[in-house]
C-alpha cells in the first residue's frame, strides 16, 4: 500500500515539534508499505531535507519516507492573515499532488483544517480512500478562544469541517472529546477510532539520557518545566501567577522553567522581568533530543491551557505524553480527560483552572513531599509504557489503514 500522507507541520525527532507523523510513517514502512509525506516549513521543525528548493519545492528520502516539502514557511508569530494565506497555499499546491500522484490511500492530519482539502478532491475526482485525523476541533476552539469572531469565516470553517468529515472514509480522533465532536457532525461511530498522542519512549526514556538543568537551578530545587508554544491557548500566565505567590512566600527553592517559543513569549519575559520573578527561567525552543535531557533533569511537568471548555476533552497535547514518557509527575490546570487520567493513576496533580493559590500550593506540596513525588513519577512512567507507548499505538494506526485499504 502506498500512503500519500499530508501533515503541513511534519518534523523528524531532530526538530522541536511533535513526532507523531514521523513515527506513524516509519511504522507503515516497517510493515512493508510506502509513504509519501507532503509538508511545509514550520519554525522549529526539521523535515530532514537539505537540498535547495526548486520551483518552491524540494523532495528526498528521510528515514525511508519520501518527503515532499513546499517552500511555505510558517510560524506561530505570524499574523492571522499570513498564517491563513500559508494554509491556503499549502492546500492548493497539495491538490495537484493528490490528483497526479500514484497512491492507494490518502491520509491527512490536522491542524490546520485546510489540510483535508486535497483529500476531498482525491475522494471526489479519483475515488481514492481518504482518512482524516483530527487533532483539534475547528471551528469550536478558535471561536471559544475569541481568536476568530467573524461569522462569515466561522461559517466557512464549519462548512469545510463538515465537508471534510463526510468526504472521509474514516476519521481518527486524538481524544474522547474530538471523537464526540466528529460524531456530532453526523459521522457514524463505526468509522471513527480514537488513537491518542503517544509516548516516544526511545526518545525520552533511554538510560543514556543525562539529566540537565538550567543555569542557576540547584540540585536541591524543585524544578517544574513547561514545554511548547507560548501562545494565547496555552495560558502560561497562570504559572507566572503561581510564581508570584511562591516569591511572596519566600519559596526560592522552587523554580519554573519555560521552554519554547510563541506569540506571547516576549510579553511573558517582560512580565517576569517587571515583577522580578527570578524563580522563572525561559529557554529557547530546542530539538526533541535536547529537550529529553531537560525533562530528565526536571521534577514536574506543567500541563497548561487557557480555561476554555472546548479544551477539556478536545485536545491531546504532545507535552503531556513527553512528560510521562520521561517519568515526570504532571501538574495539570484544567478539567477534562487528562485531569481524570492523572487522578485515576495518581501520576500528578489536577488543579482548578485560574486558581493561582492552588497552583502554588501544589508546587509547594511537591517540593515538601519528595517521596510521594517520586511515586507519582513511577506511576507516570508506568502508564506511558502500558497505555500510551508509541509503538503500540502505531500498530493500531497501521492496522486501521490496512483494513480500510482492503
By CATH reckoning, the class of the largest domain would read Alpha Beta
Beta strand count:
14
Q: Do you know the CATH topology of the largest domain?
A: Rossmann fold
Number of helices: 16
Label the overall shape. globular
Output the radius of gyration.
21 Å
Low-confidence stretches: none
Order of helices and strands: EHEEEHEHEHHEHEHEHEHEHEHHEHEHHH
The mean pLDDT is: 94
What characterizes the major β-sheet? 8 strands, mixed
Helix content, binned percent = 40-55%
* Lateral arrangement of strands in the main beta sheet: 3-4-2-1-5-6-7-8
Q: Report the structural category.
A: alpha/beta
- Report the β-strand fraction as a percent range: 15-25%
How far apart, in Å, are the first and last alpha carbons? 10 Å
CATH superfamily placement of the largest domain: Glycogen Phosphorylase B
Architecture overview:
The strands form two sheets. The chain has an eight-stranded mixed β-sheet, with helices on both faces. Helices cover 44% and strands 18% of the residues. The protein contains 16 helices and 14 strands. The chain is α/β, with parallel strands linked by helices and 406 residues long. It has two domains: 2-198 and 389-405, Glycogen Phosphorylase B (Rossmann fold, 3-Layer(aba) Sandwich), CATH 3.40.50.2000; 202-386, Rossmann fold (3-Layer(aba) Sandwich), CATH 3.40.50. It starts with a strand and ends with a helix.
Amino acid at each position: 500500500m502506498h500512503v500519500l500522507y499530508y501533515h503541513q507541520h511534519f518534523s523528524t525527532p531532530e526538530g522541536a515539534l511533535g513526532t507523531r507523523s514521523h513515527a506513524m510513517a516509519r511504522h507503515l514502512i516497517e510493515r512493508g508499505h510506502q509513504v509519501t509525506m507532503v509538508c511545509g516549513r514550520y519554525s522549529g521543525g526539521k523535515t530532514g531535507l537539505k537540498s535547495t528548493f526548486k520551483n518552491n519545492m524540494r523532495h528526498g528520502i528521510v528515514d525511508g519516507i519520501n518527503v515532499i516539502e513546499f517552500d511555505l514557511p510558517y510560524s506561530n508569530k505570524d499574523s492571522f492573515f499570513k498564517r491563513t494565506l500559508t494554509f491556503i497555499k499549502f492546500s492548493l499546491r497539495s491538490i495537484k499532488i493528490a490528483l497526479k500522484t500514484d497512491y492507494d490511500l490518502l491520509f491527512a492530519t490536522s491542524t490546520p483544517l485546510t489540510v483535508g482539502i486535497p483529500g476531498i478532491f482525491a475522494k471526489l475526482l479519483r475515488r481514492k480512500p481518504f482518512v482524516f485525523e483530527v487533532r483539534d476541533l475547528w471551528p469550536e476552539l478558535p471561536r471559544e478562544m475569541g481568536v476568530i469572531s467573524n461569522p462569515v469565516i466561522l461559517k466557512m470553517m464549519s462548512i469545510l469541517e463538515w465537508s471534510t468529515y463526510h468526504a472521509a472514509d474514516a476519521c481518527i480522533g486524538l481524544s474522547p472529546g474530538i471523537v464526540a465532536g466528529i460524531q456530532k457532525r453526523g459521522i457514524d461511530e463505526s468509522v471513527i477510532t480514537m488513537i491518542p498522542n503517544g509516548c516516544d519512549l526511545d526518545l525520552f526514556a533511554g538510560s543514556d539520557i543525562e539529566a540537565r538543568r538550567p543555569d542557576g537551578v540547584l540540585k536541591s530545587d524543585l524544578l517544574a518545566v513547561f514545554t511548547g508554544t507560548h501562545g494565547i491557548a496555552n495560558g502560561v500566565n497562570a504559572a507566572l501567577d503561581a510564581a508570584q505567590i511562591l516569591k511572596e512566600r519566600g519559596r526560592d527553592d522552587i523554580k519554573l522553567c519555560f521552554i519554547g517559543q510563541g506569540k506571547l513569549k516576549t510579553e511573558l519575559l517582560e512580565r517576569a522581568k517587571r515583577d522580578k520573578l527570578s524563580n522563572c527561567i525561559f529557554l529557547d525552543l530546542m530539538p526533541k533530543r535536547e529537550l529529553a535531557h531537560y525533562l530528565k533533569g526536571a521534577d514536574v511537568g506543567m500541563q497548561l491551557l487557557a480555561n476554555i471548555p472546548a479544551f477539556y476533552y478536545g485536545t491531546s497535547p504532545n507535552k503531556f505524553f513527553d512528560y510521562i514518557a520521561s517519568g515526570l509527575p504532571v501538574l495539570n490546570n484544567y478539567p477534562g480527560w487528562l485531569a481524570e487520567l492523572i487522578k485515576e493513576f495518581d501520576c500528578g496533580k489536577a488543579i482548578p483552572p485560574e486558581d493561582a493559590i492552588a497552583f502554588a500550593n501544589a508546587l509547594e506540596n511537591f517540593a515538601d513531599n519528595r517521596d510521594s513525588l517520586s511515586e507519582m513519577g513511577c506511576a507516570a512512567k508506568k502508564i506511558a509504557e502500558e497505555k500510551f507507548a508509541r509503538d503500540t499505538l502505531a500498530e493500531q494506526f497501521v492496522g486501521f489503514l490496512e483494513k480500510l485499504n482492503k
